[in-house]
Design brief:
Elements lengths: L1 E9 L3 H9 L1 H7 L3 E3 L7 E5 L5 E10 L3 E8 L8 E9 L2 E11 L4 H23 L9
Antiparallel strand pairs: 1-7, 2-3, 3-4, 4-5, 5-6, 6-7
Amino acid sequence: MADILHDFKVQASPERVFAAISTPTGLDQWWTKTCVGEPSLGAAYELGFGSGYSWRAKVTCCEPGSEFELELVDAQEDWLGTRVGFALTADGDATAVRFHHTGWPQANAHYRGSNYCWAMYLRIMGRAIEHGESVPYEQR
């Protein structure tokens, strides 16, 4: 199995970062086109990425201001059963973010492309939180 791991800081409180990674409004700012769900353990999320890409996930970890994780239960084959998550730690005026996307079946081309895309999406997330920047979904 292969894992994607990214560590970075966001100049914001853990509560602000948690809202960006766990709420539909927050996720639509930087990752999804349309999202439905509620940040609570066991809750179902609908993750819309445009035509033909309506995925589903369940919340496997939810500790407000600290941790959030989704397990993909309906998605492209390589993503099925993988877990996308965040661990947040206050670091002065910033939040240290430890991102993971674990459980990839292999480090194939899809994995490598997704690793790159995660870095881009996470940068967009940080810029949205820190500077209020918005990148329309079609331009991400």
